[in-house]
Amino acid sequence: MSITQKQRRHLKSLAHHLKPVVIVGQHGLNQGVLDELRSTFEAHELIKVRLNAEDRATRETMVEHICRETGSNLVQTIGHVGVFYRRDSDKPRIKLPE
Asked: 3-state DSSP call for residue 87?
């Protein structure tokens, strides 16, 4: 599912007060972290993830990998923090504007 610019702005405003719920540490994006992300998406549709990587290219690769492996959309990145959205197919909790 792709999100529009209007929906992205709405999600950014909702994510502003959130704290990172998953932190990718020095061991990188391993299977344990991906499993934690999947279980977090079951509880929340919108999450912040702290990506502790040395350089920007590594962070961008991590973001792409997270989106691909979890089926989520990137809302925004600011420094070492990424905001991701994955709509709950059974019962969506966040109403997105058209």
From this structure: coil
